[in-house]
Amino acid sequence: MASRVLFPLAAAFALIAVPLWLAAPFHGGIVITPAWHGHEMLFGFALAVLAGFLSTRPAPVATWTLLATWLAARVAAAAGTGPLALIAGLSFPVAVLVITAPPLFAGAKRAQNRILPALITALLIVDGIWWAGAVWLGPALQQHALLAALDLFALLLLIVGGRALPAAVGGYLERRGIARRDAARSEYELPLAILVGAAALFDLLASDRVAGALCLGAALLALRRVIAWQLHYTLREPRLWTLALGYLWLIPGLALKGIAQLGVSFADTAMLHAIAIGGLGTLTLTMMARTALLRARQPLENFADIGVAALLLSAAALSRLLSPLVPVAAGPLLWCAGLAWACAFGILLARLLRTAARTRQRL
Predict the structure, then answer these.
(1) Which CB contacts under 8 angstroms, 24+ apart, belong to 28-36?
(2) Which of 47, 198, 219, 279 is the most buried (most CB within 10 A)?
(3) Angle value at C-alpha 97, between 94 and 98, nearest 5 degrees
(4) Using one digit for the tens of pLDDT, what is the confidence trace for 147-168?
């Protein structure tokens, strides 16, 4: 499966890339821009996780195509310039779209099921806009593209996490004899898609206030949705509360992004990390660990290490959010955030390697 290659690759990349970004200013010969950092966390790390998650039974040639194009795109983002870099950089999202979207479209019987393949298509378009900014049109366009990409990944997490989390929690409640209250399980998906998808469009158009208002609306709708899931019952189960923690980070994340874009005196780039670290980081980490175990037909037990990793990511998110608010400690807080992030994905990488080793021992 592609996840056996892409999940460890994504975890290792997350482990290395953030400390590299923080250390770059101390090495005069290395220039790593904020545009690179944001792009690689979304299209290098998060898109690799998405590709591994959605590529359930690809042919070996598809897996190696994803790996080769991912490597080509990372080289292009780090060192490439001109149209050839654009082609190499877009090769990975194109491969993800070609390999994962057709089965999703073919199986989409309801409008909600078309959201995922539409999101993959939109991510390719936004990455193309980022590359157009990198090659021809300048960094301002790159920044707008990254904001739109963050919206799209937030929506992806609201959809995928909003299906996985209540299903897992609901089954747990039923086994304990607790009545479920989440009868309306999919009616929120289209409204959330409209709100966050529109926010992405207005971010591309540099209409910050409109995008911010839409993000605030999405945060309120997500909060209303999550109340019925009775997440307080998950506190004794790391395999459940880690998922819940990641999903819950999306609500203040969208709200803080909206508040910043509406002009309140916060540092907006710092506020984005509630989504990027708290939501995206925690949910991708937890989903990789869970998916690797399920696909290896191993039980979802002994999840304490992933619980520690999830808490480290929350500490990283809080440190990053505080860094602009406490200027005298901004540098140490940034390093605390980066090291906590790296430790979390080091824990995940060790877990993925152990899972793979046990799978080989059984064969």
Answers:
(1) 33/139, 34/269, 35/130, 35/133, 35/134, 35/139, 35/142, 35/143, 35/146, 36/77, 36/78
(2) 279
(3) 85
(4) 999 999 999 999 999 888 988 8
Residue 314: closest CA among 241, 258, 257: 241
What pLDDT sits at residue 101?
80
Domain with residues 3-362, CATH architecture:
Up-down Bundle (1.20)
The tens digit of pLDDT for each residue in 71-128 reads 999 998 887 678 888 898 999 999 999 888 877 766 656 666 778 888 999 999 999 9
Pick from 127, 149, 110, 19: nearest CA to 73: 127
- Residue 199's nearest CA partner among 273, 265, 149, 249 is 149
Structure tokens at 114: 């078309």
Residue 27 makes CB contacts below 8 A (sequence gap 6+) with none
Tokens of 89: 């950089």
- Which residue type does 55 have? S
Instruction: In whole angstroms, give the CA distance from residue 336 to residue 270.
Output: 14
Tell me the two tokens of residue 264: 């309140």
How is the chain split into domains, by residue range? Answer: 3-362
What's the pTM? 0.92
